[in-house]
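Inverse folding, one chain.
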């Protein structure tokens, strides 16, 4: 397993937890940044799309699985909107646990592919007519899809929220006016 990929996975999880831990303001840049990064990274590091057969099914399946992990993580965030319309998130231990378990499972799977069941994996890919490029794409999708989907889910949830009710004093002042 490449030490660079391991460090990149750890850096992504640490960055997510640092950005989201506690009570945080939701900014447009924070929501759009993963989308821009994915748009820049994907074309340069993807070996190539497998546009048919089992390779495509694996790629789509990994996108769905990754997106599901991101939505699960987002479901553990409290998303609220204050009276000014500013969205806020509150992340705690359950949110952190999802990201840590996800990163550990992904690293364990990659390690297993390289050391424990590489022969079985190779036979599986050959028997199912899946290219190594499609398998590599699916691993990358499992890295990017959770981050992107969690940010999109935060955006959607913040748009569904209604602003918090104004305080009693501001309501009374608006009635007097």
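Residues assigned per position:
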């Amino acid at each position: 397993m490449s030490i660079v990929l391991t460090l990149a996975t750890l850096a992504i999880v640490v960055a997510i937890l640092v950005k989201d831990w506690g009570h945080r303001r939701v900014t447009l840049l924070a929501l759009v940044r993963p989308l821009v990064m994915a748009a820049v990274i994907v074309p340069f590091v993807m070996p190539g799309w497998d546009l048919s057969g089992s390779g495509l099914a694996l790629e789509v399946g990994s996108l769905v699985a990754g997106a599901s992990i991101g939505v699960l993580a987002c479901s553990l965030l409290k998303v609220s909107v204050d009276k000014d319309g500013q969205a806020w998130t509150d992340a705690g231990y359950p949110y952190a646990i999802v990201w840590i378990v996800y990163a550990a499972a992904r690293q364990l799977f990659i390690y297993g592919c390289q050391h424990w069941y590489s022969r079985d994996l190779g036979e599986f890919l050959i028997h199912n007519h899946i290219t190594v490029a499609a398998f590599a794409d699916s691993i990358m999708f499992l890295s990017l899809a959770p981050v992107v989907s969690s940010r999109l889910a935060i955006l959607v949830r913040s748009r569904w929220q209604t602003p918090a009710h104004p305080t009693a004093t501001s309501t009374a002042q608006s009635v007097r006016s």
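The first strand starts at residue 22 and ends at 25. The two ends are 68 Å apart (CA to CA).
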